Amino acid sequence: MNLDLENGWQVLPIGGDTGTAYMGIKQKEKVFLKRNPSPFIAALSLEEVTPKLIWSKRMHTGDTLTAQQWMNGRCLERSEMSSDQVISLIRRVHHSDLLKRMLQKVGGIHYEPSDFLTLYYRGTSADLLAHPLLHKCAKFLEAHLPECPKDDYEVSHGNLKRENFLLSDSGQLFLVDWESVMFADPAKDLSMLMCRYVPRADWKQWLESYFGKQLSKAMEFRIQWYALMNLLLDVEFNYRRGRFHEMNQDIIKIQQTFEIFEKFI
């Protein structure tokens, strides 16, 4: 792989959805290389949300290549995703003035509830759109859009899966893979993580740990709305990749979530 590095570097691809991540090795030096990362990466490094940014360079192809400190560690296990350490990191991201300023500076986009419905309708196959349960849920969401002032939108990671949480050998937790970053209702991130990793019976306690207070009815509504929206998007994602077992598991969750949300209304 030619990444315009001087002689002596060994570059090894690292698995991932984008195919743009590599390990760079030169003698005793090891770095994490990323081709065309989000320009937001510098702010994330300053806030110690991601490993330290070492350098950034423009390649002859016009692409951008960054190098970050290599951190020995591991991804979180499913059972660790409801931990206080995860809550603390997400809260820090959502409430960072620096991240908010920098994302605004690099042209971060605001996503409203209707924008996520548009993504679902445009990206989903006709077969899925015609599925009775999925069709009913999408129409229900369309008829009950939540309200959240744009001033309350926060920096949203957009893909809170356990593989994006890196726990270093020294115990520091990082959140990586920021290609989906946006401004959005924080309920978008929170409900995504809970749908995937937090038992439904523990949602109230988990959210109260995040907010530090009892959940308002308005926020509870937004959480329920985005929970259903995220599950619809997960179904579409897994369908496109042929992950039909995961897709069917999400459809079961959709049925359960819809029944709860429908009673909430």
Automatic annotation (TrEMBL):
InterPro entries assigned to the protein according to its UniProt record, in alphabetical order: Aminoglycoside_PTrfase, CcrZ_PhaseVar_Mediator, Kinase-like_dom_sf
Database matches in SUPFAM superfamilies: Protein kinase-like (PK-like)
Keywords tagged on the record: Transferase
UniProt xrefs under Pfam families: APH
GO molecular function: transferase activity
Limits of the Aminoglycoside phosphotransferase domain: 50-214
Organism of provenance: Ligilactobacillus acidipiscis
Protein name stated in the entry: Phosphotransferase family protein
